[in-house]
Amino acid sequence: MNGTKYLLDTNAVITALNEGISLPAADYLVSIITEMELLSFSELTESDEYLIIRLLEKVRIIGLTHDVKTQAIRIRRQTKLKLPDSIICATALSEEAVLVTDDMQMHGMGACDTKKLSDLLSSDLSND
Q1: How far is CA 90 from CA 44, 47, 61, 103, in A?
Q2: C-alpha to C-alpha distance for 16 and 23, rounded to whole angstroms
């Protein structure tokens, strides 16, 4: 396992679960916002909830700290990202992690280091 940390955006987690993707060995994190988005979906089945909880048990969930709050405010003001996306991006910055997301708006903002899920899966993590 290399030293790079990856913060998984909500859409990356959903894609990985829906497609049965096994993520390469690495240090994975999720924002508490992602945890809340995943578990609050109104049509979540019992089996979906089970899969989400199992995945969340394998990653470190990052809460809202003062640093995340401050960075999220700055990012939202500068980029006009939605507040949840600003918090997720700020969490990646605070944790010095690469944000894994397929949200093209997040890639285009340059507020944090981003990587598409497909690029993560096709890259050799030992070279990151």
Answers
A1: 27, 31, 14, 15
A2: 8
Residues paired with residue 60 on neighbouring β-strands, in sequence order: 29
CATH T-level fold of 16-122: Rossmann fold (3.40.50)
Residue 102, burial from CB neighbour count under 10 angstroms (0-12, 13-18, 19+): middle
Q: Which of 23, 32, 12, 22 is nearest to 101 (CA)?
A: 12
What's the pLDDT band for 1 if we cut at 50, 70, 90? very low
Strand positions, DSSP E, the chain: 5-8, 27-31, 60-62, 97-100, 114-115
In the block, residue with structure tokens 């890259």: 123
pTM of the predicted model as reported, rounded to 2 decimal places: 0.91
Domain ranges of the chain: 16-122
Specify the 3-state DSSP secondary structure of 127: helix
Two structure tokens written together for 85: 């996306």
Element (H, E) at 42: none
